[in-house]
Amino acid sequence: MNSWFEIANVHEIPSPGLLVYPDRVGENIRRMVAMVEGDTSRLRPHMKTHKMPEIIALHLEQGIAKFKCATIAEAEMTAGAGAKEVLLAYPPVGPNIGRLLKLIARFPGTKFTAVTDGEDSARALSQGAAAAGCLVETFIDLDCGMHRTGICPDDDAVKLYQLLASLSGLKPAGIHAYDGHIQEPEPAARTREVEAAFEPVEAFRDRLVASGLPVPHLIASGTPTFAIHAKRGGSECSPGTCVLSDWSYSTKFPDLEFLHAALVLTRVVSKPSGGRLTCDLGHKAVASETPHPRVHFLNLPDARAVIHSEEHLVLETPRADEFQVGDVLYGVPWHICPTVALHACAHVVRDGRVVGSWRVTGRDRVLSI
Fold it and tell me: Helix (H) and strand (E) counts for the chain?
């Protein structure tokens, strides 16, 4: 074997499957830490990419203690893995308020925080927290250009932050401003977009501080803007995808020097006609919300997807005659985050062999709460 991704005991591994390479995960985490010059207090990585407690443990080993999640199940998983702080970066509404409060009671050694972007949701969280006898530190979620959640940093946002400071059961924790809309490939242009997006965010923070309101934290960045925020300072960074990386980010952002640390394994199940291979990597095994290419095969890079259905991926390649039914392909997903969520477990690869498996715990919507 000459390639880092090849597995000596691949004949023991069913396909389609998810592979994770812990040594490469650990190296990606080390690179994250180096980007903030070793100040792990500035890191709050997002768990939505990998959803595995064993990978949280790899973060903890390198001094990262704060994390960010999108679901109650991810938050429970992260606390159970030993995290000191967990931000639920998704507005809790309806029964999820009660679920969050149960987590706070169940894990007294973990500080849970939340986000809000409106008066109604803030009051609902306040009512639940006060009734439970909790004090929930809550971030105002600012819209810095993505227009998905968040409130514009204007007078209404100031009033909302003031409300957070006055409601029982809540305590203002600062600002959460996710800039996932910034996808400019060229680093200098991407930096200019970050500067433009965060000028009003920082002016808003200064306005709050000048009025006497506490703003303990400013949380920013996904993976594409991580290096920029790391250099700018003044904020915590919450990259997610970079811990595993994928073909989308390595293609669009070659300046982000992270290793591919998770792959999909598939086998040729049929050779229907000249120049075609059919593999067992359907929609249910690799994220399919984007146009092709949805996966890049490391040992068949010229393959072109022509049919993709629930359990089949048909490829065209001039190398089709080199492959037999049962042969293995190793693929880097275009989008790793939803790909991971399609698999109940990941096969763990060390020193060229699968040595066990890790459950993708956070893919479930409900664990115990």
Answer: 10, 16
Predicted confidence (pLDDT) per residue in 142-194, tens digit: 999 999 999 999 999 999 999 999 999 999 999 999 999 999 999 999 999 99
Q: Structural domain tally of the chain?
A: 2
pTM above 0.85, yes or no: yes
Would you say residue 252 lies in a domain?
no
Token digits of residue 98: 């009660």
**77 and 193 together in one domain:** yes
Q: Tell me: the pLDDT tens digits for 292-301?
A: 999 999 999 9
Residues 152 and 39 in one domain: yes
Please say whether the dihedral angle defined by the alpha carbons of residues 234, 39, 188 and 257, taken in this order, is positive or negative: negative
Which tokens hold the place of 7?
A: 């597995």
Number of other CB atoms surrounding residue 96 within 10 Å: 18
- Residue 234: CB partners within 8 Å, gap ≥ 6? 202, 218
Domain that holds residue 299: 10-18+261-359
